[in-house]
Design a protein that fits this description.
two-stranded antiparallel sheet, alpha+beta, 2 domains
Length: 159
């Protein structure tokens, strides 16, 4: 049974990973869609920038932040059971023994619960006419679902 389970589990893991979107997928999607478009179209679709920085020649770099979501990740526990026939001090033993090595199963916290902020941050460079020259993702967190990229979720990137 276990000889069949492992390959199936590995196949399922590969399928899940293959369907995940990444920051690179989001960047490629933005590079195809937005350069040459008016920056106001981007802001209308995804919200206003949080800051701007003027460059020489009338160019501007806008910092845009979106997709903010506070997510709670619950603690992760693992069941630990000490082997009644193994004593860490003396090694393997045969037959029932009584002592500290013969314990009931215990739940041990592997990682505590925590709050995580998911978000996407982009730098948008526009020319004097407010036409997008480039967009670069400067910060990206994991996604809310199976996605590895919050930016991919915000911009609707599909694999």
């Amino acid at each position: 049974m276990t000889s069949l389970f492992r390959p199936l589990a590995a196949l399922a893991a590969c399928l899940v990973i293959a369907g995940c979107t990444t920051t690179e997928d989001a960047q490629r999607s933005l590079d195809r869609r937005w350069p040459g478009q008016p920056v106001d179209n981007f802001f209308s679709a995804y919200g206003p920038p949080v800051s701007s920085y003027k460059l020489s020649g009338g160019r501007v770099i806008y910092t845009w932040r979106g997709g903010r979501l506070d997510k709670y990740i619950p603690p992760d526990y693992q069941i630990v059971r000490r082997d009644p026939f193994y004593d860490p001090m003396f090694g393997s033993r045969f037959g029932p023994r009584f002592g500290p090595w013969f314990d009931d199963p215990q739940m041990v916290m592997v990682s505590p619960g925590r709050d995580v902020r998911l978000q996407c941050v982009a730098q948008i460079t526009v020319d004097k006419a407010r036409i997008i020259q480039s967009i670069s993702l400067s910060s990206d967190t994991e996604g809310d679902g199976f996605s590895q990229s919050r930016c991919a979720e915000v911009f609707g990137v599909r694999k």
